[in-house]
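Per reviewer request, we include the raw input and output of the structure prediction for the construct analysed in the revised manuscript.
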Amino acid sequence: NSNFDYSLVLFHACFNGETDVALSVINKIGVVNPNVNFNFIPSLFHACNNRMDDVVEEIINRYDFKNNKIIDTSILVYLYENKMGSSLLKLFDTLDFVNILNFLSKYINHPIDDQNNTILISACAHSNNDLAIKLLEVNGIDYNKKNSNNTTPLIVACANGLIDVVKKLLM
């Protein structure tokens, strides 16, 4: 039924920690049209609280966060603490940068994945020039922080042809 409100079912599944139900609802919804008024944020918050990693990743992959200017910092902390770097990068790439500065001030130089990549190294590794440039403007960022492979943001930016990032790192 196209009039059925799946958002309520998804919310309750996430609130109650029912991963299988939540994933079924997400699959039923499909890719969310950004013009549809369907707010995933409360469900995402509860999925994080209940440590439903698969549900968190599916919500982040399917939902357009550009229309949501408010993301609870606890969601970002959850993604960081669980080393869900790709999901964290996707949110950083779509959110208004001002809304995540609080988070960044605490976690900017901490690893976000199993290879101990920082947010900056990951942005460079994913050839995300715009995000890397924004990150370089954050106070306290360590330009020389190395990952598990002893690689720095400069090496990764060079390897991925991020000329603007390389220039900024060498300034």
